[in-house]
Amino acid sequence: MKVRYFAWVRERVGKAEEDIDPPADIATVSDLVAWLSRQGEGYAYAFENPNVVRSAIDKRHVRADARINGAKEIAFFPPMTGG
Amino acid sequence: MSEATEMTAILRLQREPFDAAGEVAALTRGRADIGAVVTFTGICRADENGEPITALDLEHYPGMAEAEIGRHVEAARARWPLLGVTVIHRYGRIAPGEDIVLVVTASSHREAAFAAAEFLMDYLKTRAPFWKQVEKAGDEEARAKTWIEAKSSDDSAVERWKSA
Question: Is CATH 3.40.50.150 the right assignment for the domain spanning A2-77?
């Protein structure tokens, strides 16, 4: 699946997007956040406060308990500041 | 007459400035059923938290931004008898005094137009995937930028539409 990062999450991870292949027991968004946090310092920094980072599956907002099976694109980003 | 209840929805994300008066004229042209138009324009200020800034830089999530705003336009249309909605949101570098966002709502009467414009702006600020950075005055050489933090007052503004 494709993962995209925006704003300071992107800066901390150090990339805008990547293709990932997490283990089969990674079932939810919060599982994925915990797994990503173990992939390096930048990831750990980006997700140091996992409750702050928002997520979307296939361009819709989801909560941390959302299941990721079947997702084509998962995005992580800070609280939004548009308008 | 099907035209009497036709709802025109225009949604654009763009780097370029927009013409608010022109957008209102385009929305109402040839329509005799619209009795009220409310226009909100969000403008880049020259300060953020009391500190002078030289520009805002807006990042967005292409594809999701359009989809998310579209979902809120649909929600507004389900809630109020709207005859037209225009939402334009800019991204990229925006200097103080320049427009950032435009919401135009049209209805037969003012109540729906006022309420829908506020509803759309409250959701745009908290749910549309845009992120602002500020370029502080004096930062030009270093190009140092700071991400703006979300305001809890924006979250409470959106809460009122859930109980209403």
Answer: no
Contacting residues of B for A80, CB less than 8 Å apart: 125-131, 150
The domains located in chain B, with CATH, are 11-163 (3.90.1170.40)
pLDDT by position in tens, chain A (length 83):
999 999 999 999 999 999 999 999 999 999 999 999 999 999 999 999 999 999 999 999 999 999 999 999 999 999 999 99
Our CA-based measurement puts residue B3 at a distance from the nearest CA of chain A, in whole angstroms, of 31
A–B CB contacts, 8 A cutoff, strictly below: 74
The C-alpha atoms of residue B132 and residue B113 are separated, in whole angstroms, by 28
Closest-CA residue to B152 (of A52, A57, A7) = A52
ipTM of predicted complex? 0.96
A56: chain B residues, CB-CB within 8 Å: 61, 64, 129
Q: Is the dihedral of CA B42, A74, A43, A29 positive or negative?
A: positive
